[in-house]
Design brief:
Number of strands: 7
Protein name: Acid phosphatase
Distance between the termini: 31 Å
Radius of gyration: 23 Å
CATH architecture of the largest domain: 3-Layer(aba) Sandwich
Bound molecules: 2-acetamido-2-deoxy-beta-D-glucopyranose, magnesium ion
Organism: Setaria italica (Foxtail millet)
CATH topology of the largest domain: Rossmann fold
CATH class of the largest domain: Alpha Beta
GO molecular function: acid phosphatase activity
Low-confidence stretches: 6-31, 45-64
Helix content: 40-55%
Keywords: Signal
Mean pLDDT: 85
Strand content: 5-15%
Pfam family, one: Acid_phosphat_B
Largest sheet: 5 strands, parallel
């Protein structure tokens, strides 16, 4: 059904791009001798040839035997795939291109545009009790410099080398999230950082956030060292404490589903993309 819809879209695109033959014919036709010659001569091949393996049952993806990387990423983002340990080895190049090639930033921008539109539409009480919860890693700060050196999530997580990286305090701000952060402050909504980083990383986390231009958060909530429990348990528990203290969580943004699941979630949640790792 979904494949049929995709085909209809492709067909419409091809019909717009070419009027020399019928769309279905284009879709099922093998490359002609002329097309092969054109390709050899450097003339761009018709788009459909490049797309054929993505919609067919054979071809490159069939030979690989796994799930195509774009479908894998969608399943991850939609929370259909859970408890995964590493990015499929075949998908290192795909995830690398996604993260560095502009797609990740573009997807993040859409999320933040929605979050800002939502925040701007809120009727605020103006009593200083409205807060917005921000995750840190892959939400406020990006660890891409680390992951780019470690296979974009294809390597098993190494706590030793990752913690050493965190202690450098060199993670980069995600510009989209920073735009939301600054907008919320201008609207009078107070940012609260809520992170799975542990209390013993507080000092370097503050340094890193300030170095990257984050100012004016209300609280920085870190996980106690030795905390036993799930990420959902820790984060929802901290949000409950905020609520019990009289704060109203108008929004909550993170890159993991465990950032945004578990009551009280916040009046509205926003999920940033993250195809590199899973935290349950
Ligand atoms: C994890 O990283 C440390 C520090 O770079 C390294 O010494 C160790 O061999 C790594 N462990 C694995 C299993 O790769
Ligand atoms: Mg995160």
């Amino acid at each position: 059904m979904a494949t049929a819809k995709l085909l209809v879209v492709l067909v419409a695109l091809m019909a717009a791009a070419s009027s020399s033959c019928g769309p279905w014919e284009l879709n099922i036709r093998m490359p002609t001798a002329r097309a092969v010659e054109d390709a050899a001569a450097g003339v761009a091949a018709p788009l459909i040839h490049a797309l054929r393996p993505l919609v067919g049952s054979a071809g490159d993806l069939g030979r690989r035997g796994g799930v195509p990387c774009d479908s894998w990423r969608l399943a991850v983002e939609a929370y259909n795939k859970r408890d995964w340990k590493t990015v499929p080895a075949d998908c290192e190049g795909y995830v690398g291109h996604y993260m560095l090639g502009g797609h990740y930033r573009r997807d993040s921008r859409v999320v933040v545009d929605e979050a800002i539109a939502y925040a701007e539409g809120l009727k605020l009480a103006g009593n200083g009790r409205e807060v917005w919860v921000f995750d840190i890693d892959e939400t406020s700060l990006s660890n891409l410099p680390y992951y780019a050196k470690h296979g974009f999530g294809t390597e098993p997580f190494n706590a030793t080398s990752f913690n050493a990286y965190v202690l450098e305090g060199s993670a980069l701000a995600l510009p989209e999230t920073q735009r939301l952060f600054d907008k919320l402050i201008s609207l009078g909504i107070k940012p609260v950082f809520l992170t799975g980083r542990t209390e013993n990383q507080r000092a370097i986390t503050v340094v890193n956030l300030r170095r990257q231009g984050y100012y004016g958060w209300m609280k920085l909530l870190l996980k106690p060292v030795g905390f036993k429990g799930t990420a959902i348990g820790f984060k929802s528990g901290e949000r409950r404490k905020l609520q019990d203290a009289g704060y109203v969580i108008v929004g909550n943004i993170g890159d993991q589903w465990s950032d945004i699941l578990g009551a009280p979630e916040g009046a509205r949640t926003f999920k940033l993309p993250d195809p590199m790792y899973y935290i349950g």
